[in-house]
Automatic annotation (TrEMBL):
Source domain of life: Bacteria
Protein name as it appears in the record: CapA family protein
Keyword Membrane in annotation: yes
UniProt keywords, alphabetically: Membrane, Transmembrane, Transmembrane helix
InterPro entries recorded: Capsule_synth_CapA
Organism (species): Slackia equolifaciens
Length: 202
């Protein structure tokens, strides 16, 4: 009787080995991507300090101040201190460095709750249906007036969401004003009150 391993067994062994290597690689990538705020700030600096930008550069960079930490990291805050900046109605900072790089800052002045990690929460789907509208309307105290204030509706979950430094909300439905001729509707053609956007952002 032959003792040589069959081809099928060899194939299964190779597949199992590849799967194990893939799992180890995925874990390593996850650990690397979830490093500290300091590493996040350094990665940002590598992008901005890599090569000199021309005076008419259109490169846009996004940085959440929460990842910088309390102390300057490699001069990150100083780099953007003397730039021309404007703040839009949503509190988002738009600026241009002296060498022409345009950037956007989200969460200016916000700091992570821990000096060595950043927490993230992901919420969704943010879905306003015809079933939800009456409840949200009642939470606000006024019903039947055609206006919707979602702030009281979200008040119960707000403390839990604010425990995280970064918050991602998947807004599943579109928001088009009734003034543009579109009524609020549910399945299958969802259209949510645009007032929900401000409440979600708050």
């Amino acid at each position: 009787m032959s003792t040589r391993p069959r081809a099928g067994m060899n194939a299964r062994f190779v597949i199992a080995l590849v799967a194990i290597i893939a799992i180890i690689a995925a874990i390593a990538i996850g650990v690397f991507s979830c490093t500290s705020k300091t590493n996040a700030a350094q990665e940002f600096l590598e992008v901005t300090d890599g090569s000199p930008a021309s005076a008419n550069s259109s490169q846009t960079l996004v940085l959440n101040d929460a990842v910088r930490g309390e102390a300057p990291v490699n001069g990150a805050p100083e780099r953007f201190r003397d730039c021309e900046e404007t703040v839009d109605e949503n509190g988002i900072v738009h600026g241009t460095t002296p060498d022409g790089i345009r950037y956007t800052v989200l969460g200016r002045g916000e700091l992570a709750q821990s000096p060595d990690r950043v927490t993230l929460c992901a919420i969704g789907d943010q879905l306003v249906t015809e079933y939800v509208l009456p409840f949200a309307d009642a939470y606000a105290g006024k019903t039947g007036d055609g206006e919707y204030d979602f702030t009281p509706w979200y008040r119960e979950v707000k403390p839990f969401i604010q425990e995280h430094d970064l918050r991602f909300v998947n807004q599943e439905t579109v928001m088009v004003s009734e003034e543009k001729g579109y009524s609020y509707s549910g399945y299958p053609t969802f259209n949510s009150p645009e007032s929900a956007a401000a409440s979600v952002a708050d």
